């Protein structure tokens, strides 16, 4: 098969994916599907920053372009690349290319590290071993025809819902296998293998997500995952681009924003609930992350929603 033929095949697959996604995501927003772990995301226009706590998952853009930020780091990807988030991370992202004629279309598939671990146990390691951990808990890689085929087979099942229970797990397993075989597959491998340093950091991350409002003891957290405090700091920052305290702060502020928007709660009471000692400290940290004070940010978000 020539390179041009291969490229034509990928373009045809993308065209079919786009057609399916436009039918099952007919308007702006995040759309759940009959496949439990699959969501479809659509935007007909570029967007402002959206802050979220992103669980492990695969994101495949079919059309459009997006910027994702982890701390001060920026990642850009489009239909030529896919994004994998291998641990739970506080991210900011915005669509930077989209139009009504060519909307931004993205498929998100949740990743269960336990499923990755079982797959590795069944087929053995598919990634080239490394002597040192690979770094961030998210990565970009170039999409190829076999991975795109598996994604297309998974999404086609939305047209035959009776087949989903039997066939969706097979398509998902192939997708995860393709990710493990990719150039960045070692990143997923490290997260899934029990007792690796990266797996221990993922345990610390999940603990912080459950206990973000509590006072944080670095010594206790390090003991819990069986690492020294220095190793915890070093590996945690390598994976998340921030310290455990900075990570906890992001969790607190994003939960505070959710509470303010969903419940209309008092700013001071939300700040105290999130562990801040004073309303001024809470407002200062909130403004630093979201670009406006809690009161102004809520007014803007509610105006956009009307």
From TrEMBL:
Coiled coil: none annotated. Residues 202-300 form the HTH araC/xylS-type domain. The keyword Magnesium does not apply. SUPFAM superfamilies: Homeodomain-like. GO terms for molecular function: DNA-binding transcription factor activity; sequence-specific DNA binding. GO terms for biological process: positive regulation of metabolic process. InterPro entries: Homeodomain-like_sf (IPR009057), HTH_AraC (IPR018060), HTH_AraC-typ_CS (IPR018062), Tscrpt_reg_HTH_AraC_N (IPR009594). Keywords: DNA-binding, Transcription, Transcription regulation. The keyword Iron does not apply. It holds the Pfam family HTH_18. PANTHER family: ARAC-FAMILY TRANSCRIPTIONAL REGULATOR, TRANSCRIPTIONAL REGULATORY PROTEIN. This is AraC family transcriptional regulator. It comes from Pseudomonas frederiksbergensis.
């Amino acid at each position: 098969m020539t390179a041009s033929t291969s490229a034509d095949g990928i373009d045809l697959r993308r065209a079919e994916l786009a057609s399916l996604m436009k039918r099952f995501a007919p308007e702006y927003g995040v759309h759940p599907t009959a496949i439990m772990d699959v969501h479809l995301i659509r935007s007909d226009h570029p967007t402002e920053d959206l802050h979220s706590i992103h669980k492990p998952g695969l994101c495949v853009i079919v059309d459009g372009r997006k910027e994702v930020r982890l701390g001060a780091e920026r990642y850009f990807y489009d239909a030529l690349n896919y994004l994998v988030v291998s641990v739970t991370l506080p991210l900011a992202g915005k669509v930077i290319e989209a139009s009504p004629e060519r909307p931004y279309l993205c498929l998100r598939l949740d990743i269960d590290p336990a499923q990755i671990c079982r797959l590795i146990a069944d087929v053995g390691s598919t990634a080239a071993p490394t002597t040192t951990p690979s770094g961030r808990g998210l990565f970009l890689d170039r999409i190829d025809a076999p991975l795109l085929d598996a994604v297309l087979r998974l999404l086609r099942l939305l047209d035959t819902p009776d087949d989903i229970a039997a066939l969706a797990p097979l398509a998902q397993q192939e997708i995860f296998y393709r990710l493990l075989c990719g150039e960045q597959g070692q990143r997923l491998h490290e997260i899934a293998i029990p007792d690796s340093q990266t797996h221990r950091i993922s345990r610390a991350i999940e603990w912080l997500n459950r206990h973000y409002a509590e006072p944080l003891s670095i010594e206790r957290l390090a003991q819990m995952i069986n690492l020294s405090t220095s190793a915890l700091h070093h590996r945690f920052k390598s994976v998340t681009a921030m310290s455990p305290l900075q990570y906890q702060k992001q969790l607190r502020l994003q939960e505070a924003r959710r509470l303010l928007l969903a419940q209309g709660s008092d700013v001071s009471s939300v700040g105290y609930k999130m562990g801040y000692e004073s309303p001024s400290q809470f407002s200062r940290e909130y403004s630093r992350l979201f670009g406006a004070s809690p009161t102004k940010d809520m007014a803007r978000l509610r105006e956009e929603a009307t």
